[in-house]
Structure formats: structure tokens, C-alpha cells
Amino acid sequence: MITVLLADDHPVVRGGLRALLGSIDGLNVVGEAANGREAVRQAVTHRPDVLVMDIQMPDVDGIAATRQIARDAPGVAVLMLTMYHDDDSVFAAMRAGARGYLLKGAEQDEIVRAIRSVAAGEAIFGPGVAQRVLGFFSAPPPPEVPFPELTGRERDVLDLIAGGRPNGEIGRRLGISAKTVANHISSIFGKLQVADRAEAIIRARDAGLGLQGERLPGPGASRQPPEVP
Length: 229
What we know:
There is one protein chain. The protein is an alpha/beta fold. The protein folds into two domains: about 1-140, Rossmann fold (3-Layer(aba) Sandwich), CATH 3.40.50.2300; about 150-205, Orthogonal Bundle (Arc Repressor Mutant, subunit A). Helix content is about 50%, strand content about 15%. It has helices at about 10-20, 35-45, 60-70, 85-95, 110-120, 125-140, 150-160, 165-175, 180-190, 195-205; strands at about 1-5, 25-35, 50-55, 75-80, 100-105, 125. A six-stranded parallel sheet has the order 2-1-3-4-5-6, sandwiched between helices.
């Protein structure tokens, strides 16, 4: 027998679910809750196999309640049954510890199947939700940002340094004063733990910076020593 707790702030929804589940062999509704705080209390008290829970509820919402249940009653499998299908809601529920996520438009047999699945330790998502989850995990990871310890402005300065730009030109391009450029460069040296501009350029170019806008000397021109801040 799979024991089920229902949590939804609409009595009509709870009543419909109780009637549905009460007609299915092997399922037993052991309680109802109208808000997240009551859902947590009853989950800890009754220790149902499955808690069918809405997200938007008064007092404590379903996400916060799921997080607390995962901590205080980890054996309870939470199945979200909600009208919210946005990515923020779906992934917040997953991070909180929900094992399943269905939309309220789901067919009755789909709800019953989901309850049995999460009770058996499986994760289950409605068709539309499953596509979003698969799309999220199959998407290529975002490209890594070189030198994450630098601020965005410092990274801009380093990119221009690596491209061979002198301080004066860096200031004009970025709309900042020469003193501010020098301060950024000093900060960059400290964060990258480099001794001078030449070493910073090597590090930056190894990371792919400065290659697009590199300034090369003209024919017959001699290379000037790196400008120091």
C-alpha cells in the first residue's frame, strides 16, 4: 500500500485528488494540507510514501516546504503537481529535492503512474517538463571566462594590453583616465601574480585574449619595450 499526503491550498483540488486516489487499489490518502507549513508538519508526523504538493501556497510555499521535508523527512518522495511550468519553478523544485514534476492538466492515469514511480524511487516529469529538463542538460556548457578572478573592466584592460595597446589608447577606448588604467593594471598584476606587463601579456595570450585586436609593428619598425603602468 502506497500512502499519500495531499498539499494544495484549493479544497476542490484536494477533494478531486482524494476521490481519484481513493478509487485506485494500492493507494491510500493519509492526510491533507492547505499550506506548506502544514504539509511539513504532516509529512514528519505521518511519513507518507508520497507527498503530492502544489508550489504556490500560503504561509510556506511548496519549494520551501520540499526543502524542509528533504531535511526532516527524507524518506518522503515529493511529487509537484502545479500549474507553473517555467524553468525557474521546475529547477527550483529539483534543487529542493522533488522527485517528480507534473502540471495540473495531466491525465488522471498519468498522476497515478507518477505517484507509483516516485514511491519506487524513480524520478518522473510530465512530457512538457521532461523536454525542458532534457534540453537544459543536453545544452552545451557556456564557454569558460578566462581569469574569473578579474572584474569585467579588468578583463577588458587585459585584453587590450595583450593586443599591444598602450595605456593612453586603452584609456581612450574604454573612456577612463590614465590613472584609472594604471590602477586596473596594478590590480591585474596582483590578481594574476605576474611581475610585469610582458608576463601579463603572455598569460593573457595563452588564455586567448588580445589575439583579435593585436597591433603589429609596420615594415621595418622596431618593437618598443612594453609600457609600464
